[in-house]
Amino acid sequence: MTQNQHPPLLRVEGLGKTFAMFHLASMLHAFEGISFDLHEGEFLLLKGRNGAGKSTLLRTLWRSYLPVAGHIWYQSRFGTIDLARAADVDIALLRRQEIGFVTQFLNARPRVAAQDIVAEPLRLAGYAPDDALEQARHWLGEFGVRPELWRAYPSTFSGGEQQKVNLARALILPQRLLLLDEPTASLDVGARRALVRRLGDLKAAGVAIVGVFHHPGDVADLIDREIDLATHPVPAASELTHVAV
Amino acid sequence: MTLAALTKPWAATSYGFLDASAKRELRRKMLKAIAVPGCQMPYASREVPMARGWGTGGLQVTLTLVNPQSTIKVIDQGADDGVNAASIRRFISRVSGAAETWDTLDASIVQSRHRVPEETMREDQILVLQVPNPEPLRGVEPNMSIARQMHADADYGRLWLTLYEQLVRKGRIMQGAAYPSLVNGRHVMTPSPIPRWDVPKLNMARHLTFLSAGREKRLHAVPPFTRVEPLVFSDRPYRVEDHADLVCRRSGIAGYFMNEIPQDSGGSVFEVSDSNLGIKAIRRAEGEAVEIGATWYENGEYSA
Amino acid sequence: MSIDMTMAPAPLLPPQLMQTEALLSMRGVTRHYGEVRALRNVDVTVYPGEVLGIVGESGSGKSTLLRMMNLEDTPDRGDYRLRLRGRDDGNLFDLGRYERRMLCAHHIGIVYQNPHLGLLMRHSSSGNVAERLLIAGERSFEVLRSKARDALDASEFPLSRMDARPAELSGGMQQRVQLAKAIALEPALLLLDEPTTGLDVSVQALVLDTLKRLQRDRNITMVLVSHDLGVIRTMADRVLVMRHGEVVEQGLADQVFQDPQHPYTQQLVHAKL
Question: What is the ipTM of this complex?
Answer without folding.
Answer: 0.87
